[in-house]
Amino acid sequence: MIKSQNKFWKEVRCAKCRSLLCFEYIFAGRIMIKCRKCGEMNEINYKSTKKVFEQSNNEDEMIIDKDATK
Fold first, then answer.
1. Which of 5, 33, 39, 45 is least surrounded by Cβ atoms within 10 Å, i.e. has the fewest?
2. pLDDT tens digits along 8-41
3. If phi over 0 gives left and psi between -120 and 50 gives alpha, with beta otherwise, what is residue 46?
4. By C-alpha distance, which of 43, 23, 19 is closest to 33?
5. Residue 68 contacts by C-beta under 8 Å, 6 or more apart in sequence?
6. pTM to 2 decimals?
7. 22-49: buried (b, 16+ CB within 10 Å) or exposed (e) per residue?
8. Cα→Cα distances 59→11, 34, 39, 56, 66, Å
9. Percent of the chain with pLDDT over 90
10. What's the CA gap between 47 and 2, in Å, rounded?
11. Residue 55: band (very low, low, confident or very high) from pLDDT cuts 50, 70, 90
């Protein structure tokens, strides 16, 4: 996790070649990003519990499910 402009960000890397795709801060949803280096389509799913939204004041308590990364 990095801090830039007083905001926290997590790296998203390609599952195939590990090149940096982007920085994110997502609680819930999904994204699909095509790697510019190798052409791999990377799908990342984010799932958060209701408790995480209630405790949103603490940025380190995010729960991110990246098991669907391909």
1. 5
2. 888 999 999 999 999 988 888 889 999 999 999 9
3. beta
4. 43
5. 30, 43, 44, 45
6. 0.60
7. eeeeeeeeeeeeebeeeebebebbbebe
8. 15, 27, 32, 6, 18
9. 36
10. 21
11. low
